[in-house]
Amino acid sequence: MPTTTVVHLLRHGEVHNPDGILYGRLPDFHLSETGRRMADLAAAWFSDRDIAALYSSPLERTQETAQPLADRFGLPVRLDERLIEAANSLQGRHVSRGSFTDPQVVRRLYNPFRPSWGEPYTEIAARMVDIVKVVRKEAWGREAVCVSHQLPIWTVRRAAEHKRLWHRPDRRQCELASVTSLTFEDQRLVSVGYCEPAAELYGSGPGVPGA
């Protein structure tokens, strides 16, 4: 019989970001109060699962999302750079509709297929596939959680489903504190699942989307 292993990719909860900054990899962006409640709901969703390993991006918002899981399962949170947010040359800027008329922004948007404003999709996919393989090996026959960010999770999902990596950002299925689950039989991916444990809290925060 094949051995079943599940690697769950958990997106972090809502971030306190009242100024609407594209925070990317910038330090000192923490979960909001709603984001902490999202993390608690996500941890509760995993409560009946056989979680053997817990990994996180090194950014504060992902570590804070991982902590309720660490507390619930008594697991250390292992930080791994491969789970970090995608690099973005626009980070630190205020995000609004008007941003896309700024010449400093527009000149970086010439190639949506790479994309020209940040880390290539192929590189994001490669590092995410790499860490999933490492975690799958560690959690062999059980389940693991990797806390990451919207674009890395969505990119590795598209790679897993053999879809083109470039896409429309507004069509990503990867909400705050959502879970994308990769189920393997031995080394073969057999299914991709998706769940939103914190859906009841969507719209309860300040309305500034996370990343």
Automatic annotation (TrEMBL):
GO CC annotation: cytoplasm
Name of one Pfam family that matches: His_Phos_1
GO molecular function annotations of the record: phosphatase activity
Coiled-coil positions: none
Protein name (Swiss-Prot/TrEMBL): Histidine phosphatase family protein
Gene source species: Nocardiopsis gilva YIM 90087
